[in-house]
Every structure is written in structure tokens, then in C-alpha cells.
Amino acid sequence: MTTPVLEARDVTMRFGGLTAVRSVDFTVNSGEIVGLIGPNGAGKTTFFNCLTGLYVPTEGTVSYKGTVLPPKPHLVTKAGIARTFQNIRLFANMTVLENVLVGRHTRTKEGLWSALLRGPGFKKAERASEERAMELLEFIGLAHKRDHLARNLPYGEQRKLEIARALASEPGLLLLDEPTAGMNPQETRTTEELVFAIRDKGVAVLVIEHDMRFIFNLCDRVAVLVQGEKLVEGTSEVVQADERVIAAYLGEPFEGDPGAAEAPESAAAEAGAVADSTPGTTKGDVQ
Ligand SMILES: Nc1ncnc2c1ncn2[C@@H]1O[C@H](COP(=O)(O)OP(=O)(O)OP(=O)(O)O)[C@@H](O)[C@H]1O
User: Fold this and answer.
1) Complex ipTM, two decimals?
2) Strands ordered across the beta sheet of 59-64
3) Is residue 19 lining ligand 1, measured as CB closer than 6 Å?
4) Rounded percentage of the chain residues whose pLDDT exceeds 70
5) Quick check: CB of 179 below 6 Å from ligand 1?
């Protein structure tokens, strides 16, 4: 049975006179991989930031497993939501293992005194954390690089390490912000497999991405934001076939348009991907 993991109700985010997100209702159910797409500046990252407590929505609520979340990032993580960022945010001069251990801190119960005195309770907790971190490194295929500095990893592996660090907080929902940005097609395919494997481990996934082929292959459901509003939501097939989505990416007006005529021209390339990634076409990955 599917149960809601994340529920955003009527979320609005204004920056002064600009409404970046407008009255968005959005649900992610257990066992789902959901995509969030939209032209540049549509409000995707702002919406993510509202979900993770980085921004306090001007209006609306965000709930995780039925409980309204406090708008504080560390409390959101503690509740069970983890995220990665558009730009890699690893501790470059720490090892691969240390980076994952940092991600475990919300799940470590040992207090300050125990850590300072390095008592038996702390050592036991430290061993357990390290074991879990190594399991995660095995899972993402980086166990053999546990002692490498993060900054020396190739780009694709740095992004994987970010995912492992996010998983270290034992989330029930993982938010990925453009996980394949800058990746080559092989790395993108590996990421796709990794996201499926994460879902199979019982973690629901919400992903923002510009690579339409990636999104439509991966997601059970896709929501389209345009000018801060949710325009369409449905299966990959439904979204790809919706003319309003293509029009929004091309910056063409359409019935009920919240203002897509102002969408940036660069979105036209992405629209090509919407149109060309319909089943049966052979267009390559788009970035
Ligand atoms: N902190 C902020 N202060 C003021 N305006 C902001 C802020 N963050 C975002 N915006 C504006 O809100 C709108 C939505 O931006 P956002 O970054 O959420 O879009 P996006 O869909 O994630 O875009 P992209 O795909 O290019 O990353 C844009 O007009 C942006 O300039």
C-alpha cells in the first residue's frame, strides 16, 4: 500500500515582489521516484529549499509522514529527509569515509562529554557508525576509495559520495538536485541505476533534473513547474504528451499560461528533449 511520505500543501514562496513558488500542492508516496522539472527559473530549487527548511515558505505547510516539519534544515534531516545540492558540497580535504561519517551525525546519540572523554559508549557508537558508513560505500561502489581525499575523486564519484553522505542520515526520502549535471552518458546511466537501487531499499526519491531522458526513464511520476506554479503532473508518458509542457519550454503562450511567454530562450533546447525523448526516438542525452 502506498502512503504519503512527503506532503506539501499550498506552498508559496515570495522574495519581495517576486513569487517564486505559488500555491503548490505536492505529494511523494512511499516506494516512489518522483521528478520535478521546469524551465530555468521555474522555482524548482526554491521549492526544494522550502521542503528542506532552508527557506520558510511564505504560506503553506510541508509534512513528513503525517507530521508538519519545522523549517530548520537539521530538524528536517533528523525527521528523515536528506538532500544533495546542485553544486557539489563535499568536505574536499576529508577522506571519502570521513565525508560519509559527517552525514551520520544526526543519527549519533552520544553527547559532547562522551565524545570529548572518548568513553566506551562513544567508541561503540563510533564503530557502529563506521560499519554503517562502509556499508554505504559498498552500496555506491566506493568502499575501495575509503581513504582517498574527496577532492581527488573524479567528478562522477564525487556526486556518488554526496549521495552516500545523504543516505548516512538514514532518510525515508532523498531529494536530489540535478544529480547528473555535468555527467557523461555513462555516469548518468550509473546514477540512474543507483537511484533505482536506493528506491528498492525503501527510500522514496524526489529528483530535480534538466536531463529529460533521465527523468522520463527514471520516474514513476513527474510534476512540471512553470513560473512557480504546478502546470502538469502525471506519468512520464502523460507529461511528455502534454502540449502545454512543450509550449512552456519553448516559451510559447498556452491556455491557462501563468506567464510562460517570458521563459528564457535557452529552454528551447530542453523542449527539444521533451519532444524527442518520447518512446521510440533515439536522441542522445541532453544537458
Ligand atoms: N534567494 C532569492 N532571492 C530572490 N529571488 C530568488 C531567490 N532564489 C531564487 N529566486 C528567484 O526565484 C525564481 C525561481 O528560481 P529557482 O532557482 O528556484 O528556479 P529553478 O527552477 O531552480 O531554476 P534552474 O533550473 O535555473 O536552477 C527565479 O526568478 C530566481 O531569480
Assistant:
1) 0.96
2) 18-29, 4-15, 59-64, 67-68
3) no
4) 80
5) no
Nearest alpha-carbon partner for 171 in 138, 142, 205: 205
Q: How far is the CA of 131 from the centre of ligand 1 (A)?
A: 39
94-139 pLDDT, tens digit per residue, is 999 999 998 877 666 655 555 556 666 667 777 888 899 999 999 9
Look up residue 271 and give its three cell numbers: 523542449
Whether residue 117 has its Cβ less than 6 Å from ligand 1: no
Task: State the SS3 of the chain.
Answer: CCCEEEEEEEEEEEECCEEEEEEEEEEEECCCEEEEECCCCCCHHHHHHHHCCCCCCCEEEEEECCEECCCCHHHHHHHCEEECCCCCCCCCCCEHHHHHHHHCHHHCCCCHHHHHHCCHHHHHHHHHHHHHHHHHHHHHCCHHHCCCEHHHCCHHHHHHHHHHHHHCCCCCEEEEECCCCCCCHHHHHHHHHHHHHHHHCCCEEEEECCCHHHHHHHCCEEEEEECCEEEEEECHHHHHHCHHHHHHHHCCCCCCCCCHHHCCCCHHHHHHHHHHCCCCCCCCCCC
Task: Give the Å distance between the CA of 33 and the centre of ligand 1.
Answer: 23
* Percent share of the chain, pLDDT over 90: 63
268 or 227: which leads in pLDDT: 227
pTM over 0.90: no
Residue 30, all three cell numbers: 512511499
* Helical packing angle, 155-167 and 185-200, nearest 10°: 10
- List pLDDT tens digits, range 171-216: 999 999 999 998 899 999 999 999 999 999 999 999 999 888 899 9
As a whole number of angstroms, the distance between CA 237 and CA 216 comes to 8
- How many residues in total does the chain contain? 287
